[in-house]
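Can anyone check this?
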Amino acid sequence: MKTILVVYTNVKLTNKEIADNKLTKYAFRTSEDVEVGDLIESKDYSKSMQITDVIEANYKFYNAQTSELRYEINSTKMYPIKTIVFKEEDELTVFAAKKNDNQY
């Protein structure tokens, strides 16, 4: 598992364009084979994401105020980093989750 930083964009940007536009970077965790510059998409987000950094460390939390990445919580501003998993979807595949008994 590694940590990746992404910016939201529907077109591939250069590092200069990312810096000049002061785009905010967001952290995710993944075990997928990715590299800087890859564009990824998810139905959970309205824009695609461009990977700007691949960090070979499995950080678990980020600080929303300082953007610090950490392995443990040290502030009330710390939040868990979401995990990205790639899935190939087609019209004959339905994704579901099993409900626990207490969810009925």
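Reply from J.R.: I decoded it. Strands lie at 2-8, 26-30, 39-40, 49-55, 61-63, 69-70, 78-80, 83-84.
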